[in-house]
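Why do we care about 3D structure at all? Because function follows from shape, and shape follows, mostly, from sequence. That is the central idea of this module. The next example makes it concrete: a single protein chain, its amino acid sequence, and then its structure expressed as tokens.
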Amino acid sequence: MQSFTQSLALSLPEAILAVGALVLLLIGAFRGDRSLGLLSWLCVGLYAAAGLALLGPEGVGYDGLYVADGFSTFLKALIFLSAAAATILALPYMKRSHSARFEYPVLLLLGATGMGMMVSASDMLSLYVGLELQSLAAYVLAAFHRGEVRSSEAGLKYFVLGALASGVLLYGVSLVYGFTGTTSFQGIASAVAAEGRSVGVLFGLTFVLAGLAFKISAVPFHMWTPDVYEGAPTPVATFFATAPKVAAMGLFVRVAVEAFGGAVADWRQIVIFSSLASIVLGAVGAIGQSSIKRLLAYSSINNIGFALIGLAAASPEGVAAVLFYMTVYVAMTMGSFICVLQMRDLDGRPVETIASLSGLSRTRPGLAAALAVFMFSLAGIPPLFGFWPKFLVFNAAVAADLVPLAVIGIAASVIGAFYYLKVVKTMYFDEPAEAYGPADSRINMAMVAATGLFVSPLGYLAIPLLSAATANAARALF
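And the structure:
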């Protein structure tokens, strides 16, 4: 049995974030909302410290509840980077919208702590604790603009549907425990291998994956996504679309591969259905949208569907493709939402309609070019970098003899290209609408430039490094 000190060393990244969040909460309580800027940059420092702590030892701690391995390290690095970016980009928005409250960066910090626990969970109990810590912070963030009806509605919808998903997940966990006698991922895998797949375990598996599908916005548990993204403050929607998605997908993959690796034939059917349904519904649902935030919400559903194709392969190559996909997805989505943050009228009020982008290439050519790059990349159009992760997941599916899945996925991606191209057409071929206000943050524009360069053809230079990192992370599960 490992000592508590050894276990604490394994979970040092989460310990840094948790203790830091409590200290910053006290600072904010004494200094008030004027400390928002200071707390935000201190949070970024904590993310950097937690990132450095990822270089520590690997192993299993807390009597099998927690695991630190290459898979969790890769995902945590991506989560902490996304959370740090979401913390920084919110500063101009919060000050402009008169909601500059010190709790925002602290809530992000607590959410990131839960996400770290999620991707390192090796037991159903630690899985649930991490998931709920992240979710509780997210519910508050969704309703952060307490004076706005839309934001309050988004928080309420997210809370009610999230509570329902948690109940479904817990029911699945209870069934799995009842029929295997353990909540440990390794114990569940051993029980399935020794006793076969009983009906009770299959029902439990279905409910567990249903609860996790809610967190990644996979069809048929996607219904909350457009409403929450539209109602939540734009920086919060940016956060929801990146870090929690990465954490939930990592948890989904770990549960499927580690806990139910002996029941691949059963969960693969669920994953394939959810994948194709997400791709098609995400594409079709986005076509009629007039709000850019709702369009990006459906884009998120669509992209999760493509990532699940890699998981359906149930191979190290497939898991590596999922990790590669999520990395590029975060950059594309983060860049798109930062562009949305620049959409505001001359008085500084947010503008979210796609129609307001009309003629943007003539009024704000730089912003139009950046958003066009992100749209083309999300559509997976070569030579932009968004094409490569799609190629990887399709390649993994073909290698696993899932050729029909790959073919349908490729065909469905054509539907998705339509609404991305519609945005580009609006910016470059329609008559100019009322001009937006000037950019108010050099840091945000620098982040747009950085993510834009990453998803441009220059991103292909990162393939050797990313491929090696994702392959190493995937091997930790097999």
